[in-house]
Every structure is written in C-alpha cells, then in structure tokens.
Amino acid sequence: MNQIFLDGESVTAEKVAQVAFDRVPVALDETTMERVAACRSRVEELVDTGQVVYGITTGFGKFSDVHISKEDAAQLQTNLIRSHACAVGQPLPIPTVRALMMLRANALAKGYSGIRPETLQLLVDCLNAGVHPVVPEQGSLGASGDLAPLSHLALLLIGEGEAYYEGERLTATDALSRAGLFPIQLQAKEGLALINGTQAMTSIGTLTLVQAQRLAKAADMIAALTTECLRGIPEAFAEEVHRVRPYPEQIGVAKNLRTLLAGSGLTTEQGELRVQDAYSLRCLPQVHGATRQSLAYTADKVSIEINSATDNPLIFLEEGKVISGGNFHGQPMAFAMDFLKIGMSELANISERRTERLVNPALSGLPAFLSHQPGLASGMMILQYVSASLVSENKVLAHPASVDSIPSSANQEDHVSMGTTAARHAAQVVHNAAKVLAIELICAAEAAEFVGADQLAPATRVLYDHLRAVVPPVLEDRSTSAEIEHVAERLLSGDWVDAVEQVTGTLF
C-alpha cells in the first residue's frame, strides 16, 4: 500500500479521505524531521536561558503573566493536557479521529511548533497502528483552537484517557501496549503544540467537504433520472442558455445534465407535453450550480487550512523570532462550514421538491404515491414525509454558528469562532442530505417501473441498476428504513458516482 508523506505543505482533502476511510499509512521524511528537530532545539534554548515566552515559560490564557520555572516546564505541559481534556458528548467517528491525528501531525511537521521528533513520530505511529483516541465531539469554542478535543488526542500520547484498538474500547495504556507502542513524557511546549490548533473543526470539515462533493455529483445524476421519469424538457439545459449567465458551476451542471440525459427515450420537447417544467427541474443548473459555488469556496479554505501552522506561539528559526499570534482562531473555517451547510441544505431542499412531484399524481401523471395497489398500499407516501422532515431539520442546522461568540479565560480570549460547532452541524446537514437524495432516487426508480426503465438514458440506467441491486421494486408495502440508510451510505461513498462516470466520462 502506498503511503502519504506529511510535510506540512502538500496534503489534500482527497489524501485526508484516503487516510481516514481507507487507512492509507502516513510517513515523515528525513527533511521534515530535521526541520522539526531544529525547531525543537530552539525551544530548549529558550527554556535553558529562562526567556519569557508564552506557554513555554509562562502559564496559559489569563495565566500568561505567571512565570514558570525550568524545573516545572514539563509538569506544566502534562497539567495542561489533563485540565483541558474535558470535552463531552458522543465520541467522534473513527474516520474523523484519523483525520484529526493526520492533520495535527501535518501541522507539527511544518516545523514551527517546537515539538520533539519522537513525540511527533509517536502520533504518526499511533495513526498507522490503528490506535485511535476516544475524542468527545462537544466542547470546543474554535479559538484558541480546538483545545478540549485535541487534549483527548494528547492524552493518548502520555498513556492516559481511552482509545479504540482493533474494535475494542480500552484504556490508553492497554491500547498502546497491544500495539507495541509506549507513552512519552511531555516536555516544554509540547502539550501546547499538540492542542493549540484548528484540527478538530478541520478534520470534520474536510471529510464533510469530500462527502458533499460526492453528493453534488450524485444529485445531478438522481435529478436526471427524475427528469426522465417526469418526462422533463432538457432544452432548459441547453448550452446557449447558460452561456449568457456564465457562472462556471451553473455551466458545468448544465453540461452534466445534457450528458446524463443523452440517449433517453423518456424526455420530451417544448410543447410536446408542456411548454416548460417546474423550477425543481428547469432550474437545476442554477440551484445545483450555486451549491457547487459554496463547495468551491469551502474547498479553497480547506486546502489552505490543512497545510497551515495553527498553534501559538510560533517559532521562526530563520528570522530568529518566537511570536505569539492568533493562527488558532477558526473564523475562516467557521465561515466556510456555515457556507457549506447552507449550500447542501438547498441541495436537499430542491431534491425533496422533486420527490414531491414524483409521488403527487396531480403533478406527475403517475399512480398516486407510486403505489402498485393504490389505496390498499401506500407506496412511497411516507418517504416524502421523511424527506420533508430531514429538510426541515437542515434549515435549523443551517443557522450560522460563526455569528456567535462567548468570551472565555477571564476575557483574555474575548472573541471565538464556534467553528467546530459549524463543522459538526455541516456534517449532520450532509448526512441528512444524503438520505433526502436516497429517497428521491428510490422514488425515481419506482417511477421508472411505470414509465419504462428500458427507455432510460445509458447513464441513468447504470444508476437505476445499482439502486435495484439493493432496493427491489416496492410491489407491496414494506419498511424501507434500512434501504434508505444503505443507499445514503452508497451515495456518500461515491461508488455509484464512479460507476456512472465510467459511462459518461468524468463529470463536472
């Protein structure tokens, strides 16, 4: 298996997803470790000479004016981790924790944090060995970084707290021991270096972005299938229409739809059945394209954040400076996550409207609720209810977390980002959107049974066939909860998108 090198400069969202979901190993090269060691030497000089440097020879936050002796420098770091490891709530999913570990290691590998090479190596070894700290999801303000969640990560390295290993939840000591690893004693600056950063919000946000990008493509594919089943008019997707309103994302979605619908025997022309379609079909490029704009903005910010030094203070060897700054402040990611969840909420919103058109006989011309036994069997009736419920929940979650701030540390930290809350809510919005799209796909496939699945376009037929492999036609009423959940997971994984693209070529 290939490995991904962490150098603080070249990690991408796709690489994070590979490490998180596929467990691709990571490594540190010699040049990176030399840079880390040189920065560490500077920290040791500061401690030996007793210079006043925040978090190295002083306390933290409001205690920054309290001098810490050389003899207490190591204890200060251990106390920091223990006191700050007070996050609450459900544990973050293991893929998110893997991303968290990877991104923290990547930030430390930049060589501005002053951590010892052996401490960084232990973090990488834990990741590669599958020793995953239990990290509760709630408790971060998103400035001074993600202190509480990252402290639970740091606990693992000193043999405290809990960790998952080979499917078991164990004490950190037991998990390390079973993996053949040994805890370390933190030295000056190391505790602060491990927890002062934005990696909790960024790990959640990066994986959420990757899944949102997969869903955006899947949404175009599902909408194309729905368009066929409702005998839609593809002329609304004509190149001329979108050339005169030249948003690249709108143009890209319109081209996707033309490609996906090519060869369909079900679509109609203007005036054949109706002059124009409802907005949820006709305005697909405009709405889906706008969601793509929100994802493009988010992707730009994520690509910067995952390769940034976000702790404090930062040590600049070439300039000979140690500077206390504010790179731990999560405002850029907070805005990005809020924008992402708004965009994905609308992707789900318009999907639910298409589902309503599929199941409503007054709008579709199909049997009521796509029932094969109307009246006796309810068919897809309540699937639309579930979709509407999820869309409504997304509207609440889409409220921007980034507009809130509550001062902390006796007003020393008087403005915070709430970026981790934004990222957590964005993840929930994306998972809700996946279920909404799954419901539309299930309903569209059912509609295809009535209009003729043999007349589907080659691309949408691939999607239909993949759906039918796991969800047979609903000829008689049955519970579809597990099927909806399974289809949503397939959409989030991107597998079915890849299958369709084997027919169409890479879509926008």
TrEMBL record:
Covalent link 5-imidazolinone (Ala-Gly), residues: 143-145
Chief place where the protein resides: cytoplasm
Gene3D superfamilies given in the database record: Fumarase/aspartase (Central domain), Fumarase/aspartase (N-terminal domain)
One Pfam family of this chain: Lyase_aromatic
One of the record's GO molecular function terms: histidine ammonia-lyase activity
Location of the protein in the cell: Cytoplasm
Family of this protein: Belongs to the PAL/histidase family.
Name used for this protein in its record: Histidine ammonia-lyase
UniProt lineage: Bacteria, Bacillati, Bacillota, Bacilli, Bacillales
UniProt gene name: hutH
